[in-house]
Each structure stands twice: as structure tokens, then as C-alpha cells.
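Hey all, sorry for the wall of text incoming. These are the two entities for the joint prediction.
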Amino acid sequence: MIVALLVLAGVSTPAAAQHAGHVMPPEPVPVPAPVDPHAGHVMPAPEPTPGDAPPPPIAPPPAAAFSGPEHAADALYDPAQMAAARAAIPTMHGGATARKIAVDRLEWGVGRGANSYAWSGYGWSGGDIDRLWFKSEGEGDSADGLDRAEVQALWSHAIAPYWDIQAGVRQDVGSGPERSYAVIGVQGLAPYWFHVDAALFVSHRGDVTARIEAEHDVRLTQRLILQPRVEVNLAAQDVPALRIGSGLSDAEAGLRLRYHITARFAPYVGVDYVRTFGNSAAYARADGDSVGALHALFGVRAWF
Amino acid sequence: MTITIPRRSLLRAGALGVAGFGLSRFIPAWAQSGTAGASASAGSILSGEDINMRVAHSAFAVDGRQSHAVTINGTVPAPLLRLREGQRVRIHVDNALDEDTSIHWHGLLVPFQMDGVPGVSFPGIRAGTRFTYDFPVIQSGTYWYHSHSGLQEPMGHYGPIIIDPAGTDPVAYDREHVIVLSDWSFLHPHQVMARLKQEAGYFNRQRRTLLDRAGNDAMSAQDSAMFAQMRMDPTDIADVTGATYTYLVNGHGPQDNWTGLFRAGERVRLRIINAAAQTIFNVRIPGLAMTVVAADGQNVRSVEVDEFQMGNAETYDVIVTPRDDRAYSFIAESIDRSGMAVATLAPRMGMRADVPTLRERPLLTMTDMGMGGNHGAMQHDMRDASSVNFPVGPGVDMIAPMPIDRSDFPGLGLDTVDHRVLNYRQLVALDPRKDTREPSRTLEIHLTGNMERFMWSLDGQRLSENPEPYRFERNERVRMTFINDSMMTHPMHLHGHFFEIVNGHGLHQPSKHTVRVFPGGKVSVDFTADAPGDWVLHCHLLYHMHAGMMRVVTVRPLGGDAA
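and here's what came out:
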């Protein structure tokens, strides 16, 4: 049996012509067609291709191309089975969903006052264009516990290659009075690789505030990344109950140096300076709080 | 010089192959290390008119690490299917998976209902059922087959096809080896896809550092700023990299060191198939020139090179003539140079040649951005929606402003090496084409995407959006011009037809089933729509196809033998 197969296999090796397959003189390399410097501006006719006669015109398919059944296989297989198989195509070719959960910052701060802690994270689920997002951030310190925390639930819709529009609700909890907000914002990637998240909040009391965050990764090595980050909070009016003053109410600048132990888990050290301005600063002084605070940070960044 | 392998050694090799089958039963004998050649490993070759294949889950080990694979008849790669031009074949496929499967005969001209694309050519093969493919074999050459269902192909569902010509083979050789290149991840393919959606650059561990940007690498400050302003990463060359992939030769990792045997002075035909899911390879054998004799199964005039690039699904047949009684390293380096497949060609088992280190990863250039080599073109709109006739949405991050024909380009990073590298203009068909008509119209197809969102599409639409098919009239001769509006190399594959690359060789334009379209460039192909039915056109980077970079192709009227 084996011998028979081997003989068969041996026979199948072509006992080919002696001279065939030897190197033949190469044809002269065609001169590349000149590049039209204006091509791509107004499109229409394709540029000439190498060594070719004028290219054929761009034209729609002839009428006969539209004849016959829409689905050729329906004539040869059970149309119901074909319809079911067609219905499965979208998830196989572009329509699948994905999800992500990320903790951007989970950190402890050491400064002049009590030690502080803070977190900021997000998650999303959905397709390429529409996604459901949630975001959460908060902070507190070892003396007074949780100072403030918020959770946002947002519908996110891609409006441009690098930008999503996001709309939804935000709920605050913590030491101050609770607030609910409507949220609308844009999030994305600005030129030169700046991650930007800008959102406008309208509270159920009618207070209007806004927050703009921007961060940038500076790759020192493949694993060691320095991230400058700024955040500013703005308000359209004073909100004394929340100790928020109108205009630029506070700003934060941070510098974090993280090390990617894996691509998805990176501890970091950093520094962070927060400062309140205007009436926010006045509220802070009145409360006996400092208007500026510098912290040394230790934290982790991870996603799943 | 015809067959110089004495029959006795053939028998020995065969016996070894069969014995080896028991030892490492997850690798077919032709693909086992130490094989004397594809013709000598009868134990795992499927031939004849009735062939049985069983698709199932199996254990599979790479470089000593256990994993699990989707296999055909229990092996990775799947068995070598060896047919003869002119025969008819019935292939009975049993699906022992718990999900649908399919087999697409890549490059084979079969009736559309035998082409194996679920939802287009047939309903797919349900779990626990049998489907019989039945078609005439009307061509010869090196091809392959793989699943067209979900992400089964990256899990091992691929195998080689050799079709021996009915007449004499114009290529003379003493021995042949099949070399199936692939990429293996211990991450499940769905996990790989999830990571790409979560963070498109997740697998790229070769990004530019601050030092690189400060002038430590080849990129000028001006280009650097342009890329940053565009939010494009000049190191985004491969989506999935050596960070997770082990690159395989015939199912063997670099440590497994697949070895193909030869005798000094023999003409050895290597039938090289890129069956990788997401890897474009640069292939070379240091110290040994390669004479390319066929591309995508079609004979071409011999052209001697030292290296060539292979897009996913391309096949190249090369002749090597090792003169010395020594080992040679066969190297298939991934396009981003994050890893390589390594095998050995040697006169005896146990030999190993030097393995070169990975070369420095290349950087994308302004030409790859579609600037046509015009580096002063910064005033160009990089996303001019008025220049195309499809909607330019969030899934399209760029429209190449000045795409140039790049059929003379050897591939990213291969234009600066100091040895001979193949390009498409060097491919000349051995026989003139049969349809001598000039195409009557041009169809422009834009390869579009958003690198940051890992969205991929044709003419701005993913297949999931149910776009209008590309329609052709039966026997119509058409030119397709692929315009690459992205910064990645896309191997574009048309089912059911060969197209000829318009490369200046007239009636001897080379026939291909898959063509690499270089970043920011374009390439034209002519074809005759002579196969009625429904087909597909897609990027053969599997995760691009999975992201939607695929379109239905219809050829009408059906009539005659089609329905």
C-alpha cells in the first residue's frame, strides 16, 4: 500500500524538460509612467499605468451586469439556509462589538496635608460607531474620607475619524450636596497625539459647568512613558453650595511616569499641582483650605 | 537531470514519514522536520478523486508549548492536497466542530457554488454535517485552502494544494518541498481582534521613542511633525506582531526548526505559501539565490532574486540550487521585523546554519502617506472627500492625495537593502494571456480604513453595512485600480478569477489571485469576468477582512452551466 502510494507520488514528480525553467534574459524594465502632479485633486480619469495604452474610462457596469437573480446561490441551495447564512455576515465582517474597561488613574497622593487618593476610569461597549460609555472619577483623603465622586453614563457616537460626540447623564455623590447633570461632550485625539475630553454639564439646578482634559504620551522607551496632563474646570456662575466660583474655577497639571510591566498594566509615579482661582479660591480660603496643593503621586494604570 | 533521488531513499523517507506520523501526530508527514520532500511523504498526502476531510479541534504544540487548534484530519497545517490537472475531485468535509465551518480553495477556478464562502457561495457547513465539494481541476500549480468562516483560519485551518500539470512541467527540478508559512498566537483570535479594537497599536512594541524623534532615526523632523499632525504612526506596519506571534514553517516554530533535506547540486523547488492570518513576510535564504518560477500558481519567466515579499495568500515557487554540503537558514521575517519564521535546508538532519538577527524595523514615509514621493506636498488635503465618490465617514482617516503606481516597489524596508529583491514589474507570464482584448472600463476601488479605530473597508463601507456589490457583466474585460488610502500594505484577493497585474508586459502581464497594494499607492489589474455567480473581493489580512474589508462581486448573467 505504502509502496503503491510512493510510486504514485514519485510519478507525480514531473520528469521535466531539461532546459525549461532556466534563467531567461529579462525583459527590459518598463519605464514608469510619469506622475501627474495634479492627480488626486479632481480625480476622474485614472492615471496611466506602466507601459500601457491610454487607460480605459471609469464607467459603471453594463446593464447586463444587473440581470439575473440577486443571490446566485439561492438557485442551488435552500434559500432559507442561504438567507440565514447571509444574516450572519455582518458580525463576521465589520459588525461585531467590542468592550473595554480601563482604570486610567488609581493613585495615592502625598503632600503637605493629609494623604489623598483619587481614581479615574472608564468602560465602553459597542460597535465601531456607536458605543455605550461610562466614566467615573473621584477623590478623597485619609482625614475626611471621600470628598467627591461622579459616575457618567454616555452614548458615544463617532463623528469624525478621531472624534466622538458623547451625551448622557452624570451623578455626583460625596460630601457636598448631591447633583445630577446632563452631559454633552467631545472626546478624541487632536493633532500631534493629544487625547482630549471636553464636556459641558448642566445640573438639575440649572448650573452650567465645563471640564477640559488633555494628555499626551511621551515614549521614553517602549515601556517607560511620561505623561503630561492638564485639566481645567470652568463655571458659568458661582455655585456656593459646591464651592465653585464662576470663570476658571480650578486647574490641575500633572506629570506621570509609568512603566509598562505588561501592555495593560503600568504602575507610575508622578507629581500633581492643583490650584483654585477666583471665587473658588475665595471659598477655599473662607473654608480654611489651601488654594494650591502639590502632591507626589503613586498609582497604577490598567485595562482589560 | 530528472529524478535523482534513488528509489531506496524514497522508501526510507516514506517509512520515516509514516513512523514520524506516530511520533508527532499533529504535523502531517510532508510537513515534518527532516522530510525528503513533498513527493516522498506519501503518508499525509490526499490524492485521488474521492477525498475525506474532517474539521475538528485538536491539541497542537509550538516550540514545546501546548495549545489547541482547529485542524483538518488532525494536523496543522492541514494535509497536502495533491491533484492532477484534468481530473475531477470530490472532497467530503465532515464538520466535527460545534460551529459552522467552510473550506475555500484559494486560487482554484471552481464553480462559484464550490468556492466555500458562507452566505455568498453556499450556506456553510453546519456543525455535525457533511458537505461534498465536487469540481473539475482545470489548472496546475501551487495553491492552498483554508476556512472562510469566522476566525478559524488563524487557528490552524489551512493547508497546501499542489496540482501537477497534465502535460510536462516547464519547471525542471529534482526535489520539491512545500513551505507553508503562518503565524500562531497563543491568544484566541477573538481576543486578538478585541485587543485591536480596544487599542489598535496594542501589539506594536517598536514605536518611536523620544530619542528617535530627536533625530536618532532616519525620519526627518519635518516628516516626523507631519505624521504627528496627521495622528499617523510611522511604525504602524503590522497590526499583530511578534509580540504575540510565533511564526511557523509547516507548523514548526523557530525552535522546532523544520528541516528540509537536499543533496548538494540538486535543483530544489520550494513551493512557498503564505497562509498567515495577519503577517506579510519577507523571505530569503542567506547564501542562496532564489529563482522565482511561479507566482500564485502561474508560471513566470525565471527571475533570480535574493529576497522577496509575500502578502498573505500569495504563493511563490522558487528554485534553489545549493551547491555546498552545508545547511542554509530559510528566513521569513515579518514585514515589521518583530519576528521571523526560521527553518533549515540541509543535506542531513541535525544541521543548522547561522540565523541572522532581526533587521531594524522600517519607517513609513510620505510616499506611504500617498504623497507620491512629493515631500513638499504638505499643502495637500489628506482627506479630500470631494475627490472620491463614496461617503467619507469616521471609518476613513485618509484619502491618498497623490497615489502613484507602486508596482516597481519591492515592499516596505526592502528598497534599501543591498541585494536583489523581487518587485511586481519583474513578473512576466510564461505564456501569453488568452483574452487579448483591452479592458473596456476601469473600476476604481479605494482601500480605506481608520488605523486608530481599527476600522477597515472598501470604498468607505464595511461589508456589514451591506454595500452595493461590485457588479460585472459575464465575459466583460475590466481594469480594477486599487487605490490604497491607508498606510498599510493590503493583499487584495479576488475569488474565482485570476487578474493580471498591469506592469508593462502586455500579453505577458502576470496572472495573480492576490496582489499587494502598497501604502498610499495604487496598482491596476485587468481581468475577464468569465466565472458567472457570486464571489468576494477582500483584503487577505484576516483581521482586516473580519473588520469588514470585503465586498461581494457578482458576475451576470448566470445562464449556461452556472445555474
